[in-house]
Write a structure and sequence with these properties.
Elements lengths: L9 H47 L6 E2 L5 E13 L7 H12 L3 H8 L6 E4 L4 H10 L4 E10 L7 H4 L1 E2 L5 E3 H5 L1 H5 L4 E2 L4 H7 L1
Helix pairs in contact: 2-3, 2-4
Length: 201
C-alpha cells in the first residue's frame, strides 16, 4: 500500500505562523493591560484605605483650660480625592470643579493631569461643596471623611495652644509639645484661664 505524504505550501505555513504570532501578541497585550489596570485600582484603593485607617484611629485628645472650658476639639469633614489616570474628560471636569470648589481651573487641570493614581483636590469641603460633588455623579471622584481640629476661642490663647497641620500633627505650642499624648486620645487640662486671657487680649 503506497504511503501518503502531506504537502504544505511554504507561503501558507508562513501565513499560519504570522497569525499565531499576531494572536500571541494581541493576547499578551490585553493580558498586560488587564494586569496594569488591576494593579492601578489596587494601589488607588490602598491609598484610600490608608486614609480611612488614619481617620479611624483614636480621636485626638481635647484641650481644656483650668476651669474645664474647651479650647481645642475635633469635627468631622469630607475631603475630595481623585485618581487622575481614570479621568477622560479633564477639561470639562476642571470647569465643573472650579465652579463648585471656587478653585482656579488651571490648578485643577494640573492635578487632573498628574501621573499619580491618588491626588487630593481639596481638603475640608463645606457641606454645600460635598453635596454638589455627590450631585455631579463623577464616579472617579472620592469624598473621604477626615478629622479637622478647631479652636472655639479662635485666636485667644493661640500662642499657648499652637496649631496642627492638615494631617492633624502638632506644629506649635501645646499641640506640638504634647502631640504624642494627644494622639493617644488623652485630654489635657492647662493651668491657664481662658477668660483671663480674653481680658488681657
Amino acid at each position: 500500500m503506497p504511503k501518503k505524504f502531506l504537502i504544505f505550501d511554504i507561503d501558507d505555513l508562513k501565513k499560519f505562523h504570522k497569525r499565531v504570532f499576531f494572536s500571541i501578541i494581541v493576547f499578551l497585550s490585553f493580558y498586560f493591560i488587564a494586569i496594569f489596570r488591576i494593579a492601578d485600582v489596587m494601589i488607588f484603593e490602598s491609598n484610600v484605605k490608608k486614609i480611612i485607617n488614619i481617620n479611624e484611629k483614636i480621636e485626638r485628645g481635647k484641650i481644656y483650660d483650668r476651669n474645664g472650658q474647651l479650647l481645642a476639639t475635633n469635627i468631622s469633614n469630607y475631603s475630595l480625592a481623585v485618581n487622575p489616570l481614570k479621568i477622560n474628560n479633564k477639561s470639562i471636569l476642571s470647569n465643573q470643579l472650579s465652579e463648585i470648589l471656587f478653585l482656579d481651573k488651571k490648578a485643577i487641570e494640573k492635578k487632573l493631569s498628574s501621573e499619580k493614581n491618588f491626588v487630593w483636590l481639596k481638603r475640608n469641603l463645606s457641606p454645600k461643596e460635598h453635596q454638589k460633588i455627590i450631585e455631579l455623579g463623577e464616579i472617579q471622584l472620592h469624598t473621604l471623611l477626615e478629622t479637622k481640629r478647631i479652636y472655639p476661642f479662635q485666636k485667644n490663647g493661640a500662642h499657648v495652644l499652637g496649631y496642627v497641620d492638615i494631617d492633624n500633627k502638632g506644629q506649635a505650642g501645646v499641640e506640638r509639645g504634647l502631640d504624642e499624648v494627644l494622639n493617644k486620645g488623652e485630654n489635657i487640662f492647662l493651668t491657664i484661664d481662658i477668660n483671663l486671657q480674653n481680658a488681657v487680649q
